[in-house]
Amino acid sequence: MTSTATEIVHLAERHPQLSGEEMLESLVPPRQFDTATFDSYRVDASYPSQEEAKQELEVFASGGQPERRGGFFSRKPKAPEIKPGVYLDGGFGVGKTHLLAAIYHAVPARRKFFGSFIEYTALVGALGYKNTVDLLRGSALLCIDEFELDDPGDTMVMTRLLGELVGSGTRLAATSNTPPNALGEGRFAAQDFLREIHAMADSFRTLRIDGVDFRQRSLDGHAAVLEERAYDDALAAAGGTASDDDFDALIAQLARVHPSRYIRLIDGLSAVGLRGVRQLTDQSEALRFVAFVDRVYDAQLPIRATGTPLDDVFGAEMLAGGYRKKYLRAVSRLVASTNS
């Protein structure tokens, strides 16, 4: 029995709606990054590229242009290049989103936007391409977290959109995600990204940020799993409104709700409860679950679960495939969320 102190709801019974205007208003950093600054970025001294990237991004946010340091696109230093965008390339958990939010907060402009790749493509889907361009045109800054290469169609829509916005004076800042079949654990194939976006390649300078996942620095690396009684007690103690769903029911619901509405699916919750977690074997189900985990993590909601530990929710075959980095990032976030 659960305490009356906590209201229990079922995500499988929610039918969230989100208008194009609401999508536009929601294009701000997740609340965990409301106060993110360059000074609050936790630099790991073992990886000098973190401090170097932070310093260069401070210059970029102030309206200047950092010096070219070589890297992916040159073998020797060149004269400074004026480019409208920076691209943060690195593994998960090295603070790319924090730095992206720091750029957003540091740019002194009224019209600026921050969202994930999927939020921008959903905005185009809801409002139409022309209306989206008209709404975003002239904005000072567009921050794109987790740039996706999973869908060539969406990628090319974003390519065209960014090209038009750059033409209107918009500056760009983005972080990387993993394209299918990208090689190298925790690393983004920068050339693949640049090849995919064709004409936009010259708009970005790529800054490499090395490091280890900060979420693992203080955790034992395993997702917490509860017995039924402890699970019920945890939800009862959550306070506010907690969700309680069978894992399979949630997976089915995620197929019915567009990923752009996942944030509204968890609106008002204090905790997320999942009963009977099992290992996922369907790629589409797994990718939708990754998108859901991202929204839960951004909202800083604790997850309580029974069944298979959530760090084992993606099978070995999936972890060896083209979406490996995406699944590993989700596992990292699941470990943190179940231990919070």
Automatic annotation (TrEMBL):
GO MF annotation, one: ATP binding
Superkingdom of the source species: Bacteria
UniProt keyword Phosphoprotein present: no
GO cellular component, one term: cytoplasm
Organism in which the protein naturally occurs: Microbacterium oryzae
Protein name: Cell division protein ZapE
PANTHER family per record: AFG1-LIKE ATPASE, ATPASE N2B
Record-level GO BP terms: cell division
Keywords, sorted A to Z: ATP-binding, Cell cycle, Cell division, Nucleotide-binding
Annotated Pfam families: AFG1_ATPase
First and last residue of the signal peptide: none
Keyword 4Fe-4S attributed: no
